[in-house]
Every structure is written in structure tokens, then in C-alpha cells.
Amino acid sequence: MQAPLPSPRRRLASIAALAAVCGLSALSATPALAAFPERPVRIVVPFAPGGGTDLIARTLGAGMAEALGQSIVIDNKPGAGTIIGTDLVAKSPPDGYNIVIASFAHAVNPSLQPKLPFSTDKDFAPIVLIGRGPNVLVVRTDSPHKSVRDIIAAAKAAPGKLTYASQGNGTSAHLAGEMFTNLSKVELTHVPYRGAGPALSDLLGGQVDMMFATAAAVGSHLAAGKLRALAVTSAERSPALKGVPTVAESGVPDYMVESWYGLYAPAGTPADVIARLNAAARKAVQSDTFRKRVESEGLNITAGAPAELDRYVRAEEARWRRVVKENKISIE
After folding, report:
1. What is the spatial distance between Cα 186 and Cα 149, in angstroms, rounded to a whole number?
2. According to the model, what pLDDT value does residue 298 have?
3. How far is Cα 17 from Cα 30, in angstroms, rounded to an integer?
4. What is the pLDDT averaged over residues 266-287?
5. What does the mean pLDDT of the chain come to?
6. Which of 2, 158, 264, 301 has CB atoms 3.0–4.6 Å from 131's, for a disulfide?
7. How many Cβ atoms from other residues are within 10 Å of residue 78's Cβ?
């Protein structure tokens, strides 16, 4: 005798159960989503190769690549006082694969550039404050100027004749020079370049007279005896530049300019991706390789949580907004 057919309700229940089993099997066969990063990460350097920011980025990138298990691509995008490279990252997908190494200009551009193509407050997610350090007023070793007072005396004797290079409008080297001229009541001629590398090349070649360069950019030239340090721009002397006075104690009271380096991702980047990048960067800067490369050039490593970078840059932006207004500083 033939077994009775199951009822329509039982058939539907059997089909549903089979579908559920098949669905579970399909899910178990689907590989888990790959953890970040699954392809190379790009660090955009908004300067030409060869300067202090480029050096920091490349040294940092090597350590981060090891920590992340992925390649780090360094992409130099100079121009417009860091705006070109920074804007590129601001408009990149918020997935952590395009980040920018920011510096002094990031906090100052809002005061100097009324029509930025991005918002420094809203378009970026902080990753890490790498470190802070002084700029250094340097001249060639064959320069007749042996001190800050020599520079001031020469500038007063021939207003506008002395030239100082910078890695671009709005950078620490530029604003360090602007503050110097304002506080010392002298006139210097600013010559902007598309990065510290070409600026230093012209300084070494005799096309410009001096530069308020980052310590990271000039460390090797000082060690080789090609440049002479006259003063540091920080409020206190730098342990890495023993015997070099501050600008303030050299005849320009209340003078203080500090350079810094930090990493940003586009706003909206997932918190777990930010955490992964932060951990990789912190591991990289704590390595002996990184410390030996940069601490001898005046950089004080910080490398804390993302909020540390956010707090520091917001405070710097407010401070420089006051300085720019009070000293009538312009990039023109």
C-alpha cells in the first residue's frame, strides 16, 4: 500500500526547513570579511620629497607596514601650502586606505586661507599626534651672520634684502619668519617653495640667505657641517641641539613657534579602522629605528589616543588665529 502524501502544510514546513539548512550551509561556506587592511595604505605627504615631513612619513610608514602586515605607499602631493594633498584625502573614501600626514599648516591655514576647500574641523578624523619639535633658524656655514642679533642688524641696515626660504605659504617655516619680522620690527623677504627639499637645496646653493626649517629637515645638514644653527624657535632649548639658544633669548622676547606631525583619515572612517591605524602608528614610533632616526633631530614623540591630536590641533588653531590677527600676518 502506498504511503499517504504529506499534507500541504507539512510539505511547506519541510521546504522551509530545507531552505534554512541550505542557508546555514551557504553562510558557513562564505569566508569572513577580511580585516582591515586587505590592500596597501597610502600616506599622502602634502610636500615635495626630501623635507622633514617626508622623512617622518617614510620612517613611520616602514614601521606601520610591519605592524599592519600591508605595504604603506608614500605619495607626495605638494602645493598650495599643503592644501592640494590635504584636500585629496578629505575627499577620499572614508575607509582608512588614504590618510594624510598633517603638520603646522593644518592648524594655521584656517586663519590664513578664507576659502579652504575643506573644513579642518569637520572633514577629518584624527588618528595620532606623532610628535612635536622646534624649528631651527639656519644659515650656510659660510654666512657672515653668526647670531640672531647679526640677522636683525643686517635686516635693519638693508630692509628686505635678506631672504628666508620656507616649504610653502602657511607652513611653520613661513609663519616662524613672519612672527620674527613682526616681533623684531625688521623686514625680510619670504621665498616659498613646494617643500623643504627644494628650499634647502636653494639655501645650500646660496639662492636664499636663511630658513626657519624643521629640525627633522636640517638635522643631517647640521651634522655634516653644511648649515649652522643660530637659534631654535621653541620656548625652551632643545636637548637635541645642545648649545643652540632660543630666538626669544637671542633678542626677540615672547617668540615661540612649534612644529608637529599628525595623521588624519577622512571624516566618517570607522572607529575600528582608526583604532587599527592608531595602534600601528604608536608601535612604529616606539620602535628603536624610529626613535634613533628622529629624536636626534629634535622631535619629542607623543603618540597617544586620537583625541590627543584633536585637542592639540584645536588649541593650536585658536592660538594661531590670535597671533595672525594681532600681528597682521598675511601669506601675500
Report:
1. 11
2. 74
3. 20
4. 96
5. 88
6. 301
7. 23
Q: 27 pLDDT exceeds 80?
A: no
CATH fold for domain 41-132+259-326: D-Maltodextrin-Binding Protein; domain 2 (3.40.190)
- As to burial, measured by CB atoms within 10 angstroms (0-12 exposed, 13-18 middle, 19+ buried), residue 19 is exposed
Above 90 in pLDDT, residue 171? no
- The CA distance from 310 to 305, in Å, is 9
The single-letter DSSP state of residue 33 is P
pLDDT category at 4 given cuts 50, 70, 90 is: low
Residue type, 64: M
Where do the structural domains in the chain lie, given as residue ranges? 41-132+259-326, 134-250
Q: Which superfamily does CATH assign the domain made up of 134-250 to?
A: Periplasmic binding protein-like II (3.40.190.10)
Region of 48 please: left (phi>0), alpha (psi -120 to 50) or beta: beta
- CA torsion 80→202→261→277, rounded to 10°? 80
Per-residue pLDDT at 26: 40
Which position has the higher pLDDT, 86 or 214? 86
Helix (H/G/I), strand (E/B), else coil: 332: coil
Range 265-290 average pLDDT: 96
Burial of 116 (C-beta count, 10 Å sphere; 0-12/13-18/19+): middle
Average pLDDT over residues 5-10: 51
Q: pTM score, two decimals?
A: 0.77
277, 127 Cβ separation under 8 angstroms: yes
Show the cell assigned to 281.
Answer: 602608528
Residue pair 187/181 in contact (Cβ under 8 Å)? The answer is yes
